[in-house]
Structures are given as structure tokens and as C-alpha cells.
Amino acid sequence: MAAINDLLQQINDVSLRERLETEFARLSKKKKFGLVFEEHIPECTPLYGVPIRHGTIVALKSGHFNEFYTVLNISGDDKALCLRKQTGETSEIPISNLVAVAQFGEAIFPKLTSIDKVENAPGESLWHTLIEADNYHAVQLLEYLYPKQVDCIYIDPPYNNREKDWKYNNDYVDPSDAWKHSNWLSMMQKRLRLASHILNPDSGVLIVTIDENEVHHLRTLLDEVFPQAVIQMVTIVTNPKGNTRGRFSRVEEYAIFCFMPNAYVIAGNDSLLGEPAQAKKPRWKGLLRSGADSRREDSKNLFYPILIDSKQGKIIKALDVLPYPAKPDIGAKIDGYDVVWPIRNDLTEGRWMLSNTTFNSLLEKGYISLGRFDAKRKTWGISYLSQSLRRQIETGDVIIVSRDEVRNVVDVEFASEQSKQIMTVWHRSLHDAGSQGSDLVSDIIGQSRAFSFPKSIYSTKDAIAAIVRNNKTALIIDFFAGSGTTLHAVNLLNAEDGGRRRCILVTNNEVSASEARDLKAEGYQPGDPEWESHGICRSVTFAVIAKRSVKD
User: Fold this and answer.
1) For a pLDDT cut of 70, what percent of the chain falls above it?
2) What are the DSSP calls for 448-487, one per residue?
3) Distance CA 445, CA 458 (A)
4) For residue 451, which of 481, 477, 478 has the smallest C-alpha distance?
5) According to DSSP H, which parts of 282-397 are helical?
6) Helices (H), 64-210
7) Percentage of the chain modeled with pLDDT above 90
8) pLDDT digits (tens, 9 = 90+) for 112-156
9) Backbone φ, ψ for residue 205 (5° rounding)
10) Distance of alpha carbon 97 from its chain centroid, rounded?
11) Is 486 in contact with 505 (CB distance < 8 Å)?
12) What is the SS3 assignment for 181?
């Protein structure tokens, strides 16, 4: 700044110097710390269903959507006299080659038209929604429907890496484009600002997945759009085999979580760092004694019958001790109930671990459970919570999580398994985007590489569950829907805990670059039914969710 001031003082023209000083002072006040990028030409949206009339703003279906024409007149041979805005030139163009467009910021009055539906749970009122549209305008519509009401937004935007996997103004972005970062940031900024309007400002959470190409830019952009948020990033191992790009073999991607002021991570029983340990449920003890002193004559007062309702799997009660050496009538019912006797594996008479009085006391508390029928011994197995576990229930080290009201049996877990902080590095075989993403989609569609880089359904589920685990009626939105993994993750979470969480997906209906070339060679254009049937929404997203939902 000092050098610029020195240069300004060397200007002899006082008027010019003063003007330059004024402009420099104005620009100096605008400087900011943070993300600085070139905001590019505003986007536009093709409106294939809108009729072309006098005054309509149009673009060529096969051209660039930043080259606009105004229709001046329509002739009888279905040609439009068009004024090209950039050059002022006029030309006649067949109407079939034109499409009406809406530029960024122009008012659009969206209309949702039902195309198809899949009903897998007749009578249920819970419906998910897939919207085929440009996601900017779709989220504008959602702002009218769900202002500040969305509990979780999960998006997997284009990564802007070497793959030509995303479009900007109807052109695939070339990885060598000098402005590719600005293009990407311009696209994301507009959509994140809209996302901030639908996200619950108190307890909502935005989750954005990304790789190393834009992670640092995105992190700074999120700071700008969500200044009130607590932002934290998770590293997820999505490709354990590695993908060599640059010097190292890349195995991970990132999920950036933006927590509104009163949003928090809901701990589960899994830290997600490393494979899950086997569920550490307490081991119930067998009621039939084994080993030393296990014969009837070793404890004659521990040989008694136990009545059960075998149809309901329920224990009724223990009866009085059968006096020694009286023999039991194995297989006979008592009071209409089946009877369990302490018969050992060698078919000799054994004895129980508890007195009948203690047994009935524990039975009343739900601490005794009926097992399977043993055809060899012609009796049932019975297990109970040992004295050590009963003490741990009293101290809180073991907790009762539920009770079977029919059988009157508790379900217990170690308290330490109930709550584990989720780590910032997730490494889990189920998070492999190959076996749990690409392979799944290909199997469902019946086509190899049907969709590029789908997420693992399980990594998506774990990310969403960390936010809405305790909210069984949460609303989740994904406006970069891709193959529809977010909806399946929500369904999986609902299936696990009986939740009724809803999911809204948004995706456009773009075709891939190679398919576009092939379709153009066959004489088709965007908007033609043949073209649209190959679009991502109709050929992948809807196809996958319709088929996989049945599997889920």
C-alpha cells in the first residue's frame, strides 16, 4: 500500500491523482480475509416445456447456454427471427432447435408434475420424493414449502477433479480450465445460500462430502455462508485399495459437517474408527449345572419341574422340589403346561443352579429366559442373569434397554456400549464406495459402471444417523441426488429403529458427455423423449430407488 501511495504522489495531474486516490481508498475498504474468487456468468435453466413466442429469451439446444437470443418474430414455416444478444446480429433459426431459457435471478414459477411412483408399503402415509429439476430452482421451491424446517441436508456435489463429471452453463468443465475453481465456487455459493434458507437455523446440520481438490475452498466458503455454524470435518476411508493421483495413492474423502448453534453429534454404540467389535451383550448363564457336583444326588433340593408355555416361549413358574429318589414323568404335562426337568446331556438326572424360590423371584423381574427345545434331552434350555450381572444392573454398569412384555424377559447391554463418541476418522469395510456403492448400483441397473462414483450406502447412513438418530421424524434433503444413495440410507436407518424420517431428492436429467455425442449423431436433441430417457434422473436415480427400495 505504501508503494502505491508513493506512485500516486508522482502523478502531476492533480485531478487524475485525486480520482485515483479516491478509487484506491474505496477498493482498500473492500478488501477481506477469506475466499476470493471470480464470480462467473450467471447460470441459466432450459425450459423445455415453455412455448416459444415473440419476446421469448432462447438458446440453441445444442449450443452454449450463455449465448442468448430474443425472438423477434415467428414465421409460418416454424422459424424464428432471433436477435443474438451478444452481437446484435439477427438470424432465422428453426424453432425445433431452440429452447426457452431463464437466466439466474429471473422469476420462475415452478410446477411439480407427477411422473411415476413406487409404493412398497400400502396404507402407509410416509412418502419420499424425487424431484427432476435444476437443483437451484428446485431448492427455491423447497424454500416455499419448508422454510427453516429441514433437519439435515446431505449433499455430494461434483468434486471438480480430473473427471468431466459436472456441467456449468451446459458445458462440461474441462479439468485444464484456468477458471475451473471459480466456476465450481460460483455454482456452490448460489446453492449453499439457498440451503441456508431451508435448514433449521437452530438445530439443523448441513453435510457436504468432497475430496482434496476443493476441500479447502469449500471449507472457507462454508465459513462465509454459515458464519454462525460450528464446522468440523471427518475423514472417511472410501477406497482402501487406493487411487493413485499425484504422488500418493488416495484412499479417503471428506465430510464437512456444519452444525447450527444447538445441533450436536448423537453418539451411538460405534466410534466408526475400525471395524465394529462384536456386540458386548452380557452372557446369560445356563440354569442346568454342568461339571462337578452336577448330579441330582449332589443337591437333592435343586431338582424341581418348571412349567412353560412353549407356544409363547414363556416360563410360567417353578414348582416344588420332587423328593428324592422319586422319578419324574418326562414328557408329561402339568396343569396343561409343558415341563422342563434338569436332564443332563448323558440323559441322567441333573440339578438346577438356583433354588425354586430364587428362580421364581428372578422370573418375576424378567431375569430368566427360555431357550430352544433339545430333542436329545426332550426338554428346553433355560438361562438366567448371574448374581454378578444383577449387581451390575444395580450399579448401572449393565442397563435394561427393553423388556419382552409377552415373555417377560429383559434385554440388557453393558452401559459402555451405549454411548461412544464418534471419531473424526472413519475406517470401515462397509464404507468402501466400490463394493457398497458402484457394485450395488451396477447390480441393480444390470449394467456395469451404470453411475460414476456412487457413495457407499453405509457411510451415508452413518453420517446422517450421527445427526438424526434421536429424531425419528426428521426431514432430510439431498439436492445432488446422484444414484439416490441418501434415500436408501434413510430407509435403512428407518428399518433399524422404526423411524419415519422423510427424504427429498433433487437431481437434473443430464446425460453423460459420451451419450450426448451418440444421441446427437442419431439426430436427437435435449428435450426429445429419446434424449431424456438417457438422463441421470430417469435412467439411474429413479430406476435405482424403485428397485433397491424393494430390497431394502
Assistant:
1) 84
2) TT-SSSPPPHHHHHHHHHHHHTT-TT-EEEESS-TTTHHH
3) 19
4) 481
5) 356-365, 387-395
6) 135-145, 180-198
7) 45
8) 777 777 776 666 677 889 888 888 888 988 998 999 999 999 999
9) -140, 130
10) 39
11) yes
12) helix
In 3D space, the residue among 489, 488, 439 whose CA is nearest the CA of residue 463 turns out to be 489
What tens digit of pLDDT does each residue of 449-489 get? 555 567 788 999 999 999 999 999 999 999 998 888 899 89
By the 8 A CB rule, do 163 and 172 touch? no
- Joined grid coordinates for residue 446: 444390470
Peptide bond into 122 cis (omega under 30): no
Dihedral sign from CA coordinates of 354, 356, 357, 361 = positive
- Residue 523's pLDDT is 81
The whole-number pLDDT of residue 552 equals: 37
Flag residues of the chain having pLDDT under 70: 1-2, 28-42, 63-64, 104-110, 120-124, 161-179, 277-280, 416-419, 435, 437-453, 544, 546-552
Contact 100, 50 (CB under 8 A): yes
Strand partners, 402: 411
Residue 272 cell numbers, joined: 466408526
At 107, list the grid cell.
Answer: 422469476
The strand pair at 409-414 and 398-404 is best described as antiparallel
Query: Crossing angle of helices 215-225/180-198, nearest 10°?
Result: 40
pLDDT digits (tens, 9 = 90+) for 263-275: 999 877 788 888 7
Q: Which residues contact 246 (CB under 8 A, 6 or more apart)?
A: none
**Helix H or strand E encompassing 391:** helix 387-395
**CA nearest 161: which of 142, 180, 143?**
180
pLDDT of residue 551: 38
> Strands 502-507 and 171-172, how do they pair?
unpaired
* pTM, full prediction: 0.65
Domains of the chain: 1-31 (no CATH), 44-103 (2.30.30.30), 129-272+422-551 (3.40.50.150), 285-417 (no CATH)
Count, residues in the chain? 552
Type and span of the H or E element at 141 = helix 135-145
